[in-house]
Amino acid sequence: MGNLKKYLIWFANEHIDFRFQVSGEVVSIANLFKISIRWDEKPTNHPFWIVELKSDNCAKKLASRSICLRSISELWGFADESETLHQQLKNLPEHIIKPHCEPHLSFKIKVDMFCNSQTQAEKLKKIESFSYLPFQGPVKLKNPDRSFQYTEYYGLDPNTVPSEPYYVFFGRLVSGGQRNTITDMSLKKRKFIGNTSMDPQLALIMANLAKVSNGDLVLDPFVGSGSLLVAAAHYGGFVLGADIDYLMLHGKTKPTRVQDRKKKRAPDENIVNNLKQYKLRDRYLDVVIADSSLPFWRSDLVLDSIITDPPYGLREATERIGTTKAEVSVSESQLPTHIPSKVQYSLAQILSDLLQFATNHLKLGGRLVTWVPVFRSDYNSDDLPQHPCLEMISNCEQILSQFTSRRLLTYEKIAEPLGQKVEVNLSESYSNFREKYFNHVKTRREKENTAEVIIKTSVNGR
Ligand SMILES: C[S@@+](CC[C@H](N)C(=O)[O-])C[C@H]1O[C@@H](n2cnc3c(N)ncnc32)[C@H](O)[C@@H]1O
User: How far is the CA of 308 from the centre of ligand 1 (A)?
Assistant: First the structure.
């Protein structure tokens, strides 16, 4: 692998599971750019991760897409106390320091604390403690040629902050990440949103896990308001979507924003205008009204990736076209205006169809990134949907409530199906997730009501 240099990745302290997995967002990006990335210690839930890379160029490529990453610096030293760090910096080989200390290069040193704060005067004192570094250029606080970062890490618990940091780091900043895209794509300013629109941060992470890149063909079979298409198109994907909900795709559902509830949706509220809003219109192929249990796509359709958030049956119905009647006939004359009836589409069936569809239509090496809701007390990774042609390469949790969470699963297609339909292994919890959720809510309400009655009775009885 040639000579590798140490870099410090500083992650945003949000959606920890998504970056702290070895196969999380940053590793997917490295994989996409064919960057070799090595680390001594597996990432943990700490926001700092030391990795080894070939060059600044590799670090810049990771930062050019990562949403979880706040910054990446060439690591000049790190220790569990500042004296050792200063000693390391004093012993640094000249070839590392010298190119960044030339007289024509302006510079600044920034002091950051994680889980602690300091006054300006204290920070200044810390900056001055690095005065032995042979910088010759002028100090420039805005857009300097070189930025250096001294960071003190005081742990994750704001209630037990130690008097001295656990770790101190010093590095040359190579690049910031793409956190600004989260604000640029905020749902607050999005033209068209629905009740279950995906938050842009997660949508962008999903597109990174799917390794969406320029010219890829990407499908969301449960497209809703198209948030995942926006993220995929942002990374250059040509996007397609499908959804069973006619009203949703035509922007005719009730407005989602509370302040607009009494109004009608504007005529331009639709997915294509969301893409236009972000200057991504040229990436939009189409969205169609379709039932994912009855895929209508031509059999030789090959997708680079599928990113989706299927319905869980909680905030939107899980339905598919079908009937419980034994015999149904629709006359020729009724066909143009016939609206087919729908029946329940269990989460287990949805996931089974989704994995089967992915197996049939993904290219080899293509990825399926999907959410799956789970009951936290029931969770067992062996119960997650599996298919012999799909390898699960990451599994990240987002906690939704005390008893439920959802898991973002990334699968990579490793083999072509041999024509046969393979049953997807699914535990019982996916067949009855909806019932279980509502039973749980009901039991909790009953308990709360009983508790309220007891409190009221005892208050009144006093
Ligand atoms: C969780 S929402 C997706 C939200 C979407 N990611 C967004 O950002 O707006 C799930 C979507 O699946 C759709 N859906 C439900 N059953 C379906 C089916 N059988 N076939 C296709 N879409 C279905 C619902 O209409 C809903 O829009």
Answer: 9
- Measured in angstroms, how far is the CA atom of residue 73 from the centroid of ligand 1? 41
pLDDT by 10s per residue, the chain, length 462: 568 999 999 999 887 777 666 668 999 999 999 999 998 887 778 899 999 999 999 999 999 999 999 999 999 999 999 999 999 999 999 999 999 999 999 999 999 999 999 999 999 999 999 999 999 999 999 999 999 999 999 999 999 999 999 999 999 999 999 999 999 999 999 999 999 999 999 999 999 999 999 999 999 999 999 999 999 999 999 999 999 999 899 988 888 888 877 788 888 999 999 999 999 999 999 999 999 999 889 999 999 999 999 998 777 778 898 888 877 788 888 888 888 888 888 888 899 999 999 999 999 999 999 999 988 888 888 889 999 999 999 999 999 888 889 999 999 999 999 876 766 666 666 667 777 777 777 777 776 666 666 555 555 544
Which whole-number Å values give the CA distances from 311 to 61, 305, 319, 419, in the listed order? 34, 19, 9, 28
* Residue 271 and residue 125 in one domain: no
State whether 169 and 27 are in the same domain.
Answer: yes
Atom of ligand 1 lying closest to residue 321 CA: 19
Ligand 1 atom 22: residue of nearest CA: 243
Statement to judge: residues 276 and 374 lie in one domain: yes
Ligand 1 atom 18: residue of nearest CA:
291
Domain shared by 161 and 290, yes or no: no
The CATH code of the domain that includes 241 is 3.40.50.150
Whether residue 317 sits in one domain with residue 423: yes
Mark whether 92 and 190 lie in a shared domain: no
Same domain, residue pair 62 and 128: yes
Looking up residue 24, the CATH number of its domain turns out to be 3.30.2130.30
Residue 246 belongs to domain spanning = 184-431
Phi, psi of 248 (to 5 degrees): -65, -50
Ligand 1, atom 1, residue with closest C-alpha: 311
The span from the CA of 304 to the CA of 327, in Å, is 40
387 CB burial (10 A radius; 0-12, 13-18, 19+):
buried
Structure tokens at 137: 């250029």
Rounded to whole angstroms, the Cα distance separating 277 from 270 reads 11
- Alpha carbon of 291 to ligand 1 centroid (Å): 10
Q: What's the domain count of the chain? A: 3
Give the whole-angstrom CA distance, residue 237 versus residue 284: 9
Assess whether 355 and 447 both reside in one domain: no
190, 192, 244, 350: residue to mutate for ligand 1 pocket, most atoms within 8 A of CB: 244
